[in-house]
Design a protein that fits this description.
By secondary structure, the protein is mainly α. About 75% of the residues lie in helices and about 0% in strands. The chain has ten helices and no strands. The protein has helices at about 10-45, 45-55, 55-65, 65-85, 95-115, 115-125, 135-155, 165-180, 185-190, 195-215. Helix 1 (about 10-45) crosses helix 4 (about 65-85). The longest helix is centred in the N-terminal third of the chain and has 34 residues, at about 10-45.
Length: about 230
């Protein structure tokens, strides 16, 4: 029995359809992330996302049959980007100060460029991560453990002061993500409509200084000095 194969003319069309679908799904997710950030999961409807995306509800549901499926896609993309920045700590062969500076820069860049994504993730966690907790455990914990191992190697080599790396990372996450999740409050305090790039640069410098001070190895006096 012979196997039917697509003709050379049909193959490019099939590929184009796949690419078009991927792009449309990405476009829908890009619209949905802001709606979920503004309205929360419970307050968001498929109809509202479809209207913002310029699609009919039925058309959108062809790609995302349920609101939870769309929410899952949004959080998957958010976590992909968030974890990408965690990988900066994997460069254990570099100096800790430079690795942490790059890590903080990457986290703040995410807050500046993807504030809606950061807020959706924060809202899910604040609500108890009931819809996405399993994925967070499965994907965040292994990478966090890997980063902690890097700190342990630095501590053993005398490159950084003994420190609870887990809680240091928690503090870095909180400080950098607050520039997205609480940017409205910060802007009000600073008496402007929104945070500027200089605000992010100033925040970066302050956070880097605090973190480097926390990991700095105390200078011991020369034993031979009078």
């Amino acid at each position: 029995m012979s196997t039917i194969k697509p003709t050379t003319e049909a193959a490019p069309k099939i590929k184009r359809r796949v690419l078009n679908r991927d792009k449309l799904e990405a476009d829908i997710a890009a619209v949905a992330v802001r709606v979920f950030a503004e309205c929360g999961y419970e307050g968001t409807s498929i109809a509202a996302v479809a209207e913002k995306a310029g699609l009919s509800k039925q058309n959108l549901m062809y790609y995302f049959p349920t609101k939870q499926a769309l929410y899952q896609r949004v959080l998957d993309e958010v976590l992909d980007e968030w974890l990408e920045r965690m990988e900066h700590l994997a460069a254990e062969d570099q100096e800790p100060a430079e690795v942490l500076r790059t890590y903080i820069q990457a986290k703040l860049k995410f807050s500046r460029e993807q504030p809606w994504a950061s807020r959706v993730y924060a809202m899910e966690v604040i609500s108890g991560a009931q819809l996405y907790g399993t994925q967070i455990q499965r994907r965040v914990i292994p990478l966090l453990r890997k980063d902690i191992e890097v700190f342990e190697k630095w501590i053993a080599a005398g490159k950084v002061a003994p420190i609870n790396a887990t809680h240091l990372l928690f503090a870095i996450w909180a400080m950098t993500q607050s520039y997205a999740d609480f940017s409205a409050q910060m802007a009000l305090v600073l008496n402007r409509k929104q945070l500027t790039k200089k605000d992010f640069d100033d925040g970066e410098q302050a956070i880097v200084n605090m973190v480097l001070a926390a990991i700095s190895v105390p200078q011991r006096a020369d034993a031979g000095a009078p």
